[in-house]
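Supplementary Note 2. Why include the ligand at all?

Several targets in our set were suspected to adopt different conformations when bound, so apo predictions alone were not considered sufficient. For every target with a known small-molecule partner we therefore ran a joint prediction. The input for flavin-adenine dinucleotide is given below.
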Amino acid sequence: MSAAARSKSASADPDASARIDPGSTPGDEGHVHDVLIVGGGPSGSSCAYWLAEAGWDVALVEKKEFPRAKTCGDGLTPRSVRQIADMGMEGSLVGAHRYSGLRAHAFGKVLDLPWPEHPSFPSYGYVVTRHDLDAVVNERAAKAGATVWQGTEALEPILDATVPTPDGAGLPSCVGAVVKDKSTGQVREVRARYVVVADGANSRFGRALGTSRDRSQPMGMALRGYYSSPGHDQPFIESHLDIRDGDGNVVPGYGWIFPLGDGRVNVGVGLLSTDRRWKGVNTGTLMEHFVAWAPKEWELSPLTALGPATGGKLPMGLTVGPRIGATTLVVGDAAGTINPFNGEGIAYGYETGRLAAASLGEALSGDGFDAIVRYEARLDDAYGLYYKVARAFIRVISRPELMKLCVGTGMYSETLMVWVLRIMSNTIRPDEIGPAEAAYRALAAIARLVPEPA
Ligand SMILES: Cc1cc2nc3c(=O)[nH]c(=O)nc-3n(C[C@H](O)[C@H](O)[C@H](O)COP(=O)(O)OP(=O)(O)OC[C@H]3O[C@@H](n4cnc5c(N)ncnc54)[C@H](O)[C@@H]3O)c2cc1C
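The joint prediction is reproduced in token form.
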């Protein structure tokens, strides 16, 4: 902790001196950090960056060594670019493939949809591998002052039954983790006043604390692989909104081709598990069909594949909880923060890491659990209604006849699809009421009134 932050919390929180050994430094046995973060993906590294930048003593454990591969479409939307720029890192993306919009394909029609102008977001995105991106963001957090232990896995939470569980705290009080250095096998304890769970979609650490996904709500499954392609430097990313299963039936999901600008494209399929009908669909088969069926100019085939496809879960719509305990917050995929409209999760990882850091700064400065509760309020302000609209939308498109009607109708109007892109990418303008904003407000007014499945 910097002197400024230490004096801030020492004066505001009378308990602080009892819990911090002022003589110890990060790495010392017995040292108590202000915050321990489990996981160094977008959500964990952003949280570490914002806390370290504010002067707090933050430690982060990441079980892999950077740079490490992470299964992803590698697509950064303008929302992600904004967060990267706010962390002072857009310069690190020089050389990454910058793109200017989305090419939507469906039912034989093609529309080019440039990213719209927006007061808070740029009108471009990037496609960059998570191998490269996550290493840079994690390094940024370390440079800001976070203590980062790579190749270190959090094996289990350390609980403290002596910390009372306040009303509204769904998770037990966690005051650190038993961690294992994977290269030496050494097991030790890392202790902290607050713990942030940022361990991704599978979230074993979160589940050990008691988080679970609301199974009445949809989840996504996605698979991606890299291909060499002459289209590697196309200025648009491409989405196919009418992907089909082996029997030719349209399924609720989409296929994508995202150009990386280095000879490769990232190709994938995502599927919504909205109801029982889609549980039996094999994403591997879906991917094979998509590759065979994609426009020929991409030259996708088993011969241009650069390795096997890998897949993962997309927990979405804030459907994982509880997200707070007396001393614990859950962020990113571990909290199910992916946008259900488009499967985007990187921006929401950065954003929720940042929201958690803001609440933790207030908690450490003396507000305690009141500030942790504010994290939930901040999530609700930022995404509550929007995700409710999104969850309603995906219940609709999981019915093939309605999906065909919605997408088929939309594809007849470029203007309509520009509004749809704005709603689905969560880049609705707060400063004006254009058709997209008006359409969203109408949908939101309906969503507010519609009860969700129990
Ligand atoms: C196939 C696929 C395609 C996708 N495409 C896109 C896309 O194009 N654009 C987009 O915005 N989003 C995309 N997403 C979603 C996106 O990948 C996630 O939303 C995002 O990675 C969430 O970030 P996170 O930090 O919460 O979790 P993660 O990125 O999963 O990071 C969690 C980190 O925690 C570490 N960890 C886990 N357990 C432990 C432990 N016990 N101890 C220490 N470390 C641990 C992991 O090694 C990992 O580094 C895609 C997802 C999938 C599966």
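The chain has twelve helices and 20 strands. The two ends are 45 Å apart (CA to CA). Comparable summaries for the other entries are listed in the accompanying table.
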